[in-house]
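job 3f2a | input accepted
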Amino acid sequence: MKIRGANPGDFAAIQEMAAVVFADYGDYGRIIPDWLAHDGVLTSVGEEEERLVGFSMVGFYRIDPTTVLYAADLLAIAVAPDAQGRGVGRQLLKHTIAKAEAARRRLPVRELRLSVAEPNLRALKLFRAAGFIELPGEHGRYDGGQRALHMARLL
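job 3f2a | predicted structure (155 res):
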């Protein structure tokens, strides 16, 4: 699999994949275009034989307005249904972690954070294996009703 930065020609496929993969959690086909249009969001795609098989999106925000520390936020990571179970998600996550670490050259990025739906056991296993730990607290619910868990990994 080749991982590269997304370009506008990928946006329709990313939006379609998000709508399918995240259908249980909310209307991501509606949400993703706003993230794709945001200058502060880095989107990467995984492709095999010029076919999009997954994507990840990471944004950056100030942890606390009183400090200069930033967090990277894994906004979305998705793998096409027919490509799941082959390590695509693991490769995209590894690439995203490397992007967040590289951002430390320009911003004081301390950690990579994410939200995941509690019943998404496959994603939880992936994130835990990559060193993410669950953060305490109540973090709301997805539009589909699932409890949102927040996780973080120091960079």
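job 3f2a | The CA atoms of residues 60 and 72 lie 4 Å apart.
job 3f2a | closed
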